[in-house]
Amino acid sequence: RDFTKVISGSEDGTLRVWNMYTGVCGQVLAGHRSGITGVGFHDPNLLSVSWDGTVRVWDVNVDS
């Protein structure tokens, strides 16, 4: 398990994966066309919900 990550969702439709100890953003995830309304995290997967009506599943251990 990785308890070092914090996720933020933005109005621009991106998510950011932060290191909670250093405050450094390690990843920016883009794919939604509208603002993020919710996130769920279950390492290594991140789920995001957006005003564009989509739900996306991300693997935050992959750099793309």
From TrEMBL:
InterPro entries: WD40/YVTN_repeat-like_dom_sf, WD40_PAC1, WD40_repeat_CS, WD40_repeat_dom_sf, WD40_rpt. The lineage of its organism: Eukaryota, Sar, Stramenopiles, Oomycota, Saprolegniomycetes. Coiled coil: none annotated. Keywords: Repeat, WD repeat. It comes from the Eukaryota. Transmembrane segments: none annotated. WD repeats lie at residues 1-20, 29-64. This is Guanine nucleotide-binding protein subunit beta-like protein.
